[in-house]
């Protein structure tokens, strides 16, 4: 055996004895359980656990005695048999954990874990106002070669290149939902993932336009679709120019209320106590009221949301476009006049036809009598009178 071969054998034997190092990725707050040796054969005489070379505790499994060490994790770590349990891991618990001892047969045992605590953070908060910025971080503590990647709520699409940070400069409603930080080992296998829900808060955007009849009422909608965890400090409605609020609300000891002092007499709202609905109704709308109206909601921390709409004032319409039958017009004359004219003409034509026919019959009778003056004709032999023409036939005859 060459010296290099001997070295290889020694290394392999050492690895087999120590069992190598097991790498763990755990979310902050998770329970971590680390076993000493194999689960099946962990019948030990005594073991000691060290965190980054500092003693956590030494357990005499035979007699049941425990000696606590000075490692920070010792305060919360619990011995379970010869295992070490951390009920809720923190970033500071990251590091190398080594268990060493003697098993029941007197053999040395050694087990090593490399623990990485993974944590997700969102700034400024996981509830974000629409169009504002947010940064998502996914940190793997310790000296890790794992690949970190954020996945968008839609799931399939990867957000940008791999990296532990995602910065959105101006969030939209599409950014709301569940984001996932995926951690893969060097072999590309997913070892851990952490979900983070982002809530996007926005005022209702539509309708962009409200139409009100002159003298009528206009409802100017402004509300949050859902109650939000952010604290609303105040807000109000303003004409785009001048920018002064014509109605405001603000937080008092008892909650969010409309201010009574500066309310125009024509503005009303149903609730005095405000939660999500800042809709106002403008009564007796005038032509001068038309224009752009802006609703503002101010949140804690100086952040605010705005929504605007365009108020259109409609004057009364002319009767010409009325839809009732009597008001319809053809060539500038009301339809009912055309119908009257048609009815009268029909009666007149019929009368004319009847007069013409009666006149003709008289003439025909006179003709027969004149033609046979010497042969007196018996009344019964007279040819039958012409069949009285049908009404429609007469009409045709007249028009031919
Ligand atoms: C908001 O309040 C108005 C009355 O001021 C009401 O008509 C409207 O339906 C409310 N909107 C919502 C979404 O609750």
Automatic annotation (TrEMBL):
Keywords: Membrane, Signal, Transmembrane, Transmembrane helix. The keyword Transmembrane helix applies. The chain crosses the membrane at residues 335-357. Pfam families: Ig_3 (PF13927), V-set (PF07686). Residues 87-199, 215-310 form the Ig-like domain. Residues 1-20 form the signal peptide. InterPro entries: Ig-like_dom, Ig-like_dom_sf, Ig-like_fold, Ig_sub, Ig_sub2, Ig_V-set. PANTHER family: HEMICENTIN-1 ISOFORM X1 (PTHR11422:SF6), T-CELL SURFACE GLYCOPROTEIN CD4 (PTHR11422). This is Ig-like domain-containing protein. The lineage of its organism: Eukaryota, Metazoa, Chordata, Craniata, Vertebrata.
């Amino acid at each position: 055996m060459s010296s290099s071969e001997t070295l290889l054998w020694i290394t392999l034997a050492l690895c087999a004895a120590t069992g190598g190092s097991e790498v763990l990725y755990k979310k902050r707050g998770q329970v971590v359980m680390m076993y000493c040796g194999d689960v099946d054969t962990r019948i030990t005489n005594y073991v000691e656990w060290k965190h980054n070379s500092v003693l956590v505790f030494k357990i005499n499994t035979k007699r049941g005695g425990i000696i606590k060490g000075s490692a920070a994790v010792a305060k919360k770590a619990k011995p379970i048999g010869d295992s070490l349990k951390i009920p809720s891991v923190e970033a500071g618990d990251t590091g190398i954990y080594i268990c060493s001892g003697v098993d029941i047969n007197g053999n040395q045992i050694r087990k090593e874990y490399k623990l990485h605590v993974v944590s997700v953070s969102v700034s400024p908060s996981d509830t974000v106002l629409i169009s504002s910025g947010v940064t998502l971080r996914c940190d793997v503590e310790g000296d890790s070669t794992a690949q970190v990647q954020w996945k968008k709520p839609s799931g399939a699409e990867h957000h940008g290149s791999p990296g532990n940070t995602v910065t959105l400069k101006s969030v939209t409603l599409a950014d709301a939902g569940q984001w996932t930080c995926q951690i893969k080992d060097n072999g590309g296998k997913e070892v851990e993932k952490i979900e983070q829900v982002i809530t996007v808060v926005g005022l209702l955007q539509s309708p962009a336009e409200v139409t009100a009849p002159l003298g009528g009422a206009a409802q100017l909608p402004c509300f949050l679709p859902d109650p939000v965890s952010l604290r609303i400090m105040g807000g109000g409605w303003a004409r785009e120019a001048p920018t002064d609020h014509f109605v405001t609300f603000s937080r008092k000891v008892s909650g969010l209320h409309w201010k009574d002092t500066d309310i125009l007499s024509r503005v009303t709202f149903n609730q005095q106590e405000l939660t999500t609905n800042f809709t106002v109704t403008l009564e007796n709308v005038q032509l001068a009221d038309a224009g752009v109206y802006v609703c503002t909601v101010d949140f804690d921390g100086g952040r605010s949301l705005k929504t605007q709409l365009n108020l259109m004032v409609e004057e009364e319409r002319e009767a010409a476009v009325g839809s009732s039958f009597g008001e319809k017009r053809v060539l500038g004359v009301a339809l009912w006049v055309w119908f009257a004219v048609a009815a009268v003409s029909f009666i007149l034509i019929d009368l004319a036809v009847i007069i013409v026919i009666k006149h003709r019959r008289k003439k025909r009778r006179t003709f027969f009598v004149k033609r046979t003056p010497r042969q007196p004709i018996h009344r019964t032999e007279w040819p039958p009178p012409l069949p009285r023409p049908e009404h429609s036939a007469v009409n045709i005859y007249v028009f031919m």
